[in-house]
Specification:
Elements: E1 7-12, E2 17-20, E3 27-32, E4 34-39, E5 45-49, E6 53-55, E7 62-66, E8 70-75, H1 91-99
């Protein structure tokens, strides 16, 4: 059995949208499908296809929209001191809060 405690995955239906906050340094990995991603303060938009990834470079909002039914993984930043965000210390707590949106 392979368990990764430093990553979480989320499925979005076509045109499904989710927003991340306080995720600087995390990496979004497109597992399947196609995503449009924009970061607060970054004038560029990004398209991520299955197998591609993007490091979050802002402390602001990150909007992720699925262009088709799709799944992505959110990988926790490596070797960074833990910061206490509004959803607690763990990425799994933040991701659980994201799923509730």
């Amino acid at each position: 059995m392979d368990i990764n405690l430093h990553a979480a995955t989320l499925a979005l239906a076509r045109q499904g949208v989710t927003t991340l906050a306080d995720a600087r340094g995390a990496r979004i990995v497109a597992v399947s499908g196609l995503f449009w991603i924009t970061q607060d303060g970054d004038p560029r938009d990004y398209m991520l296809a299955a197998g591609e990834d993007l490091e979050i470079t802002t402390d602001g909002a990150v909007v992720i929209e699925a262009q088709v039914d799709a799944r992505f993984a959110l990988l926790e930043p490596a070797a960074e001191p833990r910061r206490r965000g509004r959803h607690g210390n763990s990425w799994s707590a933040r991701f659980a809060a994201l799923r509730a949106i």
